Amino acid sequence: MKKLFTTLSNIWKIEDLRVRIINTLLFLLIYRIGSFVVLPGVDPASLNSQNAKEGLLGLLNMFAGGSFSRSSIFALGVMPYISASIVVQLLGIAVPYFAKMQKEGESGRNKINQWTRYLTVAITIAQSIAYSRAQITPEAKLIGEPLFTILSTFVLTAGTLFVMWLGEKITDKGIGNGVSLIIMVGIIAQLPGAFVTEFQTRTSGSGGLITFIVEIVALILVVMFTILIVQGTRKIAVQYAKRMVGNKQYGGVRQYIPLKVNAAGVMPIIFAQALMFIPATIPQFVPSLATNSVLMSLSNYNSWAHNVLFAVLIILFTYFYTAITVNPTQMSDDMKKNGGFIPGVKPGKTTADYIDDVISKITLPGSIFLAIIAIIPALASVVGVNSLFARFFGGTSLIILVGVVLDTLQQIESHLLMRHYDGLMKTGRIKGRSAVPAATGTVPPAI
User: Fold this and answer.
1) CATH architecture classification, 175-447
2) What average pLDDT does range 84-102 have in this prediction?
3) Cα dist. 6→9, 12, 175 in Å?
4) How is the chain split among helix, strand and coil, in percent rounded to 5?
5) pLDDT tens, 144-187?
6) What is the CATH architecture of 1-174?
């Protein structure tokens, strides 16, 4: 406890760090206040928010901190920006023009960010129109159409752009990645309500207090397991040759390339979830298939068929996303240019093949563990855990929470160590999370 108070005191003594933390809290407070401001022309009492708490809409509502179900001006949150970032990143792989921009350094990144913003506006407008027409019931609309749709589209688009601006301000003047922190705050905002509901359910007779304590212990173990997956690395030793520059000797040291066990982050779960919503969408276009047993089974989030297919898709997407984001050939070329080599491995293609082989071997257990984390919420629901509380047992939300918290703590520790204070831990260092797409800056999000 004394160590904790000493660390907090050291953090407060560093003026720059203190100002950044205060700025971050103020910006996040602005976001949370805005999430309760209802769209103009909407009657809050007539809203049917139950449909926005299940399935894909429930996931979006969690990322938006409940704004989606409340028809807030921030109802869409930063999800259009995350979607645009993912699209731009995939374009960087498939389209030579975007691939060239990614290699142009700072100017290229500025161009990519500009394209991402333009695409964000287009996606937000499309989603705003769909939201105002499909999510808000006619009974809740106090303004007639089409004026209501036009007004809501304008306000929702402005709200998303304002949230993007808040995220950028947090990144520049605060601590941590702004967009990731906004998503994390939205997820955490749902935790107290879910916790209280689960506690009341258990203590009122469904399982008792002992069952609730067992659930909390299980949640802690799952969080620890997730941290191991996020932090896990396979280090490859790299030796740098000695070279003389004037009277000084450079090189001759051994360093390590840390290859993440889960290099793909949360993206495989996001891609797999997008595909798993297809079976539930098909009956809306083909009503005759509404009673199809296969589609019904795949649409049931607690069924074995759904979760087995979900896990397989996550494993496949983990390999796919790792393959397009980690380039062994480029790593080998960069190593060769800097006079580095892996002991016992020839430079060039042999080194690239060696790195690729190591990545393939560590990706398999990483993908399996990621799939296990993703299906734990469904297993928790099967054993009787409240569906909202079960979401914190794994899946996208837990990985984002762990990644963002570790990343923020790592930045705080860097400020402390830079000014010769002790770090946040007595031994070791907080590594932070794995690298995220440059366009997103999140686990989409952190993100």
Assistant:
1) Orthogonal Bundle (1.10)
2) 81
3) 5, 10, 20
4) 70, 5, 25
5) 888 888 999 999 999 999 999 998 899 888 888 888 888 888 88
6) Orthogonal Bundle (1.10)
